[in-house]
């Protein structure tokens, strides 16, 4: 479908993205992918992540390129009165303002929500923060790895008996960006009824805690502090990596039927009849003995061909792929999960697929812009 035919589900939505680093820019990119007109306001020196490399292209780091497509960039120095006035002109045209300044910064410039909400009553103001504005940690800056540490995520990530580990990607920042998108969408939906905007906040601390399933649910029920279990699931088994004759594979067996099928495929149907393993609870309780028995059987199999057989039999299994193999996998290509713009940009595509108004890719990172685009004719005000 061409861009002319598809303006995207958010066409006509005007977003002023004042955020930087990750959570806010990721939110802004998602909105832009689905058709919103996103103007990103950066300080004269640009977003800090332009320096977060290598690798670099023309002096700008790949990190920045991964979060800032489908935006047009304008540089304003909000420490100056002239540029603050320019920002107010843009706010007057915007539906959504997205920012993640340290709490108090916008207020010091007399640009905070309380100061502007009466002047711009339809504006949806989304703040991405570390801890929120108040409480014991209120207004403190937040960082992904620090939130992983203090939210409990690191405590359950790592090998059993080993040290706590940071998850190898900025999961808290990214989920906070997703939560910001959800909050903005809910506020837009409510604005259709009331005609009023509102303040939306997505905090890294809250988002980190929200990721603790099932560990939080387990602790709420029995009071036992969750422990690290390596690649294994804390509640179900076999849900773990297993050695084979070649490469390791991952099994994600969640019910009795899948377990019985697995045992048949690997030539150990007797395991499904072993009273220790006949129930999900038993398999989880006796996981050490089960892993030993499964790996003894799997030592006769090539991982790649076994994964194909198991998947064909509806047993969840997967190879453990490096990033390059995942990004060039035939199914990645089929799902159109890598997008190109021009000769110098490749990135991860939008994961949410809409049948009539799919995501579009219109602006490569670093596209300049000083004004919002004209509204699509069908969305122009009377």
From TrEMBL:
InterPro entries: CoA-transferase_III_domain (IPR050483), CoA-Trfase_fam_III (IPR003673), CoA-Trfase_III_dom3_sf (IPR044855), CoA-Trfase_III_dom_1_sf (IPR023606). Residues 361-382 are annotated as: Disordered. One of its GO terms (molecular function) is CoA-transferase activity. This is Carnitine dehydratase. The keyword Transferase applies. It comes from the Bacteria. PANTHER family: SUCCINATE--HYDROXYMETHYLGLUTARATE COA-TRANSFERASE (PTHR48207:SF3). Keywords: Transferase.
């Amino acid at each position: 479908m061409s861009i002319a035919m598809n303006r995207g589900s958010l066409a006509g939505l005007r977003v002023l993205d004042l955020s930087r680093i990750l959570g806010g820019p990721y939110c802004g990119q998602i909105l832009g992918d689905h058709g919103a007109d996103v103007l990103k306001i950066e300080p004269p020196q640009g977003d800090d992540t332009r320096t977060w490399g290598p690798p670099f292209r023309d002096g700008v780091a790949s990190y920045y390129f991964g979060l800032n497509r489908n935006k047009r960039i304008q540089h304003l120095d909000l420490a100056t009165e002239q540029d603050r006035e320019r920002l107010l002109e843009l706010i007057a045209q915007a539906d959504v303002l997205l920012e993640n300044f340290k709490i108090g910064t916008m207020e010091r410039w007399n640009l905070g929500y309380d100061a502007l909400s009466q002047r711009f009553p339809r504006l949806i103001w989304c703040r991405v923060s570390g801890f929120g504005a108040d409480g014991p940690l209120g207004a403190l800056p937040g960082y992904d790895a620090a939130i992983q540490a203090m939210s409990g995520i690191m405590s359950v990530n790592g090998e059993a008996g080993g040290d706590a580990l940071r998850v190898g990607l900025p999961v808290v920042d990214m989920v906070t960006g997703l939560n910001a998108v959800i909050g903005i969408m809910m506020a837009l939906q409510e604005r259709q009824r009331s005609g009023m905007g509102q303040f939306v906040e997505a905090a890294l601390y809250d988002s980190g805690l929200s990721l603790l399933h099932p560990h939080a649910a387990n602790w709420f029920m029995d009071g036992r502090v969750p422990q690290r279990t390596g690649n294994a699931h804390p509640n179900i088994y076999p849900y773990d990596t297993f050695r084979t004759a070649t490469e390791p594979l991952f099994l994600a067996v969640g019910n009795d039927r899948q377990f019985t099928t697995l045992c048949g495929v690997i030539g150990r149907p007797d395991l499904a009849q072993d009273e220790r393993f006949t129930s999900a609870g038993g398999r989880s309780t006796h996981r050490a003995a089960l892993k030993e028995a499964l790996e003894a059987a799997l030592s006769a199999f090539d991982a790649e061909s076994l994964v194909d057989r198991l998947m064909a039999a509806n047993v969840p299994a997967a190879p453990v792929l490096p990033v390059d193999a995942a990004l060039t996998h035939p199914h990645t290509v089929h799902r159109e999960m890598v997008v190109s713009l021009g000769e110098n940009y490749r990135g991860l595509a939008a994961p949410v697929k809409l049948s009539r108004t799919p995501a579009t890719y219109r602006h490569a990172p670093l596209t300049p812009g000083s004004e919002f685009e004209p509204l699509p004719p069908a969305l122009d005000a009377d």
